[in-house]
């Protein structure tokens, strides 16, 4: 059996691990663990891009994989760890709208909705990797849940970045021949977003002693 026959199976495994990392970001209670899961998820996204770009060969997908490897598992975590105070990663993140079981059940329901939507789109047109679309839609909704239930600034940003990862996972299957300018724009815009949020989080933590969004809202309401 030729080597390329294993591409769909390996890619399906990568997609399965990808959606598991999205579920993990819902239930973990520490900022450091949430960041680690984002790194793993980004690495899985890059691996899927490299794999799909190998058969048939697509330099666009290889470019996406290279941009993803440099910007997400390496550059963004470096920026967040460098600028955000270490105390934010050491403290247990207890400020959360839902407890872990309820959040996990809600994430499962959203994932099923995403699977249904992704399956309809995947069946509408023949795709090289329909599992990317299905998992991408499911992980997109789970990432939105991460953004909604978290009450700390850094995990909320990681939720946004996880949604972007999910959209990219589906995108490399729907439109594998991305224009190079779009890849370069993402390579600069996403780390810039992480840099801005990290600087703001550092300033807020030093002044207020917390990055909880609810406390910042209360502080704004009490400001004359």
List keywords for this structure.
224 residues; mainly alpha
Summarize the model shown:
This protein has helices spanning 7-27, 31-54, 59-83, 86-90, 100-124, 130-149, 153-174, 180-208, 213-222. Helix 7 packs antiparallel against helix 8. The protein is built from nine helices and no strands.
Report on this model:
The protein is an all-alpha fold. The protein has one domain. Helices cover 81% and strands 0% of the residues. The protein has 9 helices and no strands. Helix 6 runs antiparallel to helix 7. The longest helix is centred in the C-terminal third of the chain and has 29 residues, at 180-208. It starts with 6 loop residues before the first helix and ends with a helix.
What value does the average pLDDT take? 79
Count the E strands.
Answer: 0
Could you tell me the strand content as a percent range?
under 5%
Structural class: mainly alpha
Computed Rg: 18 Å
Number of helices: 9
- Shape estimate: globular
Percent of residues in helices comes to over 70%
Number of domains as seen in the coordinates: 1
Largest sheet: none
Listing every helix as H and every strand as E from the N terminus to the C terminus, the arrangement reads HHHHHHHHH
**Between the first and last Cα atoms, what is the distance in angstroms?**
72 Å
Extract low-pLDDT stretches: 213-224
């Amino acid at each position: 059996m030729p080597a390329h026959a294993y591409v769909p199976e390996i890619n399906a495994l990568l997609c399965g691990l990808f959606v598991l990392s999205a579920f993990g970001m819902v239930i973990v209670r520490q900022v450091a663990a949430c960041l680690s899961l984002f790194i793993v998820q980004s690495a899985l996204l890059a691996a899927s891009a490299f794999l799909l770009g190998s058969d048939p060969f697509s330099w666009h997908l290889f470019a996406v994989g290279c941009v993803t490897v440099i910007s997400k598992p390496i550059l963004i975590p470096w920026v967040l760890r460098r600028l955000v105070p270490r105390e934010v990663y050491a403290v247990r993140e207890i400020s959360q709208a839902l407890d872990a079981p309820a959040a996990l059940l809600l994430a499962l329901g959203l994932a099923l909705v995403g699977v249904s939507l992704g399956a309809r789109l995947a069946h509408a047109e023949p795709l090289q990797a329909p599992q990317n679309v299905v998992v991408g839609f499911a992980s997109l909704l789970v990432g939105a849940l991460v953004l909604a239930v978290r009450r700390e600034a850094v995990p909320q940003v990681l939720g946004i970045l996880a949604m972007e990862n999910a959209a990219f996972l589906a995108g490399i299957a729907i439109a594998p021949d991305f224009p190079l300018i779009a890849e370069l724009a993402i390579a600069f815009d996403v780390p810039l977003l992480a840099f801005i949020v990290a600087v703001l989080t550092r300033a807020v933590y030093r002044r207020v002693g917390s990055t909880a969004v609810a406390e910042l809202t209360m502080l704004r309401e009490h400001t004359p």
